[in-house]
Every structure is written in structure tokens, then in C-alpha cells.
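hey
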């Protein structure tokens, strides 16, 4: 019991000191994010204890005029019998809340990035053919199904359906030469991988290490472009 009382007293003194730094005439806590976070933590503990403590319920039923206003009171409400207005704990200034949130966010920032879902480099939407359709007969596609997408650097991306019911993705360079192609039946998303092999002609403006992969995935009427780079050992 003595240890609990001692701990409670130390916490009360710490809270009083932090409140002085936050609300006193020489307030300086806004320069100390750790102190701000500790202040908010202690305020929450005090509120929780006031709500759960049976003594607080008795005090609420039979208030002691000589006792200070409960810490859990957030705003002044009503007047005492003598006409003096009671006041509760001051609400932390906005900057205290902001710094506290920033302090918490700093801790989260060390964990959350690892859980962030990867996303494509860019999503290409369809554009008019403008008479630029290419002969895809080698894949057995139907000419009327050809769709052209916005360029990615100097590459042009296409899709088309085959007579067998599959859908294909094609990637060509500025001269119309094949760079990558891939087909898949309806159950799968058609994918074309452009792998950077040693000695190959690189995509103008897209410098990647050897064996890096640029993946084109046709999904929901658009083409997602994903890039996976290898370690540059050059």
C-alpha cells in the first residue's frame, strides 16, 4: 500500500510539474515533444482513475466545499452555494494536442511503412488508336479487339483478345519493335515482363540495373506498370 501511495504521489508531482510547463506563465513544454506525450499520458490516467474510483462517486454524491475541483472536470459547470464559480481542469491548448499527436505519429512511423501495400509505378489508361494499330496475327488475336494505352516513356502498350478467349498484353518500342508480350485466359490478369538483360537496348529515360523487371499488368481496363530493380553491382 505504501508503495502504491508513493507511486501515486510521485505521479501527481510529475503531473503538476508538467501542467506548470504547459499552462503556467513561463510555459515551455511546446519545445519538448516527449514531455507533451507524457503530459497527455498522465492526464488520461487521471481521468481513468477518477471515472473508475468508488471514492470519486461518493465525492460526487456529497461534495466537500473545501476540496479542489476534480481533475476529471473538463469545463466549469454551475455555481457553488456561496456563488463562487467552480472550475475544472483546463483543456490542453491546441498545440499540446498537435505535438502529442506528432510524438505518437513518430513512433508509428517506425512501424507502419513495413505494412504499406506496394503500388504500381503508374497506371496507363486507354487512348484512341489513331490508325496506329499493329498486326497481332502472330498471336491469333482479333483485330477489332485491339486497345492502345498511354505511352510509358518511349514504349507503347496494347491489349487484344485471342480467338481462343485469352487476353494479351503487348509492349512495343518507338519503332514498333516487340519488347514484351504475354497472354492469359480470363481467370488470370494478362502480364508482360520486360527484363533488362545485359547488352540489350535500354528504354530511353528509364535506366535500370541488369535483370531488373518492368511488369505490365492488364487489370480492370487499365495497365499497371510495376518496376522491380535488382541491386546495381556495377
Amino acid at each position: 500500500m505504501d508503495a502504491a501511495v508513493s507511486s501515486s504521489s510521485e505521479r501527481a508531482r510529475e503531473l503538476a510539474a508538467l501542467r506548470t510547463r504547459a499552462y503556467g506563465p513561463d510555459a515551455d513544454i511546446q519545445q519538448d515533444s516527449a514531455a507533451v506525450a507524457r503530459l497527455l499520458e498522465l492526464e488520461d490516467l487521471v481521468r481513468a482513475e477518477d471515472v473508475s474510483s468508488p471514492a470519486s462517486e461518493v465525492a460526487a454524491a456529497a461534495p466537500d466545499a473545501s476540496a479542489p475541483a476534480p481533475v476529471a472536470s473538463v469545463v466549469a459547470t454551475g455555481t457553488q452555494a456561496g456563488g463562487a464559480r467552480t472550475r475544472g481542469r483546463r483543456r490542453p491548448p491546441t498545440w499540446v494536442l498537435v505535438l502529442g499527436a506528432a510524438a505518437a505519429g513518430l513512433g508509428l512511423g517506425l512501424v507502419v511503412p513495413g505494412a504499406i501495400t506496394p503500388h504500381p509505378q503508374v497506371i496507363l489508361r486507354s487512348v484512341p488508336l489513331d490508325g496506329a494499330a499493329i498486326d497481332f496475327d502472330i498471336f491469333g488475336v482479333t483485330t477489332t479487339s485491339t486497345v492502345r494505352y498511354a505511352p510509358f516513356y518511349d514504349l507503347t502498350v496494347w491489349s487484344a483478345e485471342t480467338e481462343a478467349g485469352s487476353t494479351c498484353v503487348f509492349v512495343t518500342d518507338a519503332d514498333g519493335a516487340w519488347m514484351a508480350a504475354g497472354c492469359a485466359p480470363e481467370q488470370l490478369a494478362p502480364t508482360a515482363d520486360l527484363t533488362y538483360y545485359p547488352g540489350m537496348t535500354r528504354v530511353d529515360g528509364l535506366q535500370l540495373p541488369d535483370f531488373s523487371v518492368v511488369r505490365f499488368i492488364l487489370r480492370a481496363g487499365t495497365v499497371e506498370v510495376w518496376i522491380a530493380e535488382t541491386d546495381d553491382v556495377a
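Strands lie at 122-124, 126-127, 147-149, 156-161, 167-172, 178-184, 191-195, 213-219, 222-228. The radius of gyration is 33 Å.
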